[in-house]
Amino acid sequence: MKQLKVEGAWVHEPRIFADHRGSFHEWFAGTGFRRAVGRDLGLAQANCSVSAPGVLRGIHYADVPPGQAKYVTCVRGAVLDVVADIRTGSPTFGRWEAVRLDDECHRCVYLSEGLGHAFLALAAESTVVYLCSEGYTPHAEHGVHPLDATLGIDWPVDRPPVLSEKDAAAPTLAEAARSGLLPSYEACRALSSASRNDGNASSSA
Questions:
Q1: Does residue 97 fall inside a structural domain?
Q2: Catalytic annotation on 110?
Q3: Is 130 one of the annotated active-site residues of the chain?
Q4: Could you say which of 71, 130, 142, 185 is catalytic?
Q5: What is the chain's pLDDT, residue by residue, as a tens digit (205 residues)?
Q6: Which is the catalytic residue, given 60, 106, 117, 142?
Q7: Which domain CATH number covers 125?
Q8: How many domains does the chain have?
Q9: 152 in Cβ contact with 97 (< 8 Å)
Q10: Is residue 147 in a domain?
């Protein structure tokens, strides 16, 4: 796994074994994940979404704590997956990074608790699956508008993307910050440190 420019996010590029029957790849391995990230990925929920071309989902995040770390891949079609640093006090606050996920290279993206996540569907029936460290908690879920000019995410679109009503009504990053809705960098680091310590204790037990 390779760390992205946004602290707390990684990309995994699996080795693909292909022959006349098809292909095989390992899209998640606990040992390699732990070696790269320094903690285990607890699995509380697994999600699957199917999107038409031009559908834009996000930017989504959860309160910290409990937060919700995600491990994301695209098993059909293609998406532009974006990780945004929305943690107040972070040295990379407001920075984002995009990774193309598709059914050819089978890249995966991991983002730790407190980071914002969004993706734009680039092909028909683009199917994204993601493993989540915590289950869905409605009152703890929030969003930032994906077309916020301050963030300036470079979505590859030639027409307005399709947003849900909830995402279209989401606040800008500045508005969310003024309302006290954004997670703090300190809280995210404390949660990550606790997860590492729990993992080390489990390994030595």
A1: yes
A2: no
A3: yes
A4: 130
A5: 999 999 999 999 999 999 999 999 999 999 999 999 999 999 999 999 999 999 999 999 999 999 999 999 999 999 999 999 999 999 999 999 999 999 999 999 999 999 999 999 999 999 999 999 999 999 999 999 999 999 999 999 999 999 999 999 999 999 999 999 999 999 999 998 877 766 555 555 5
A6: 60
A7: 2.60.120.10
A8: 1
A9: no
A10: yes
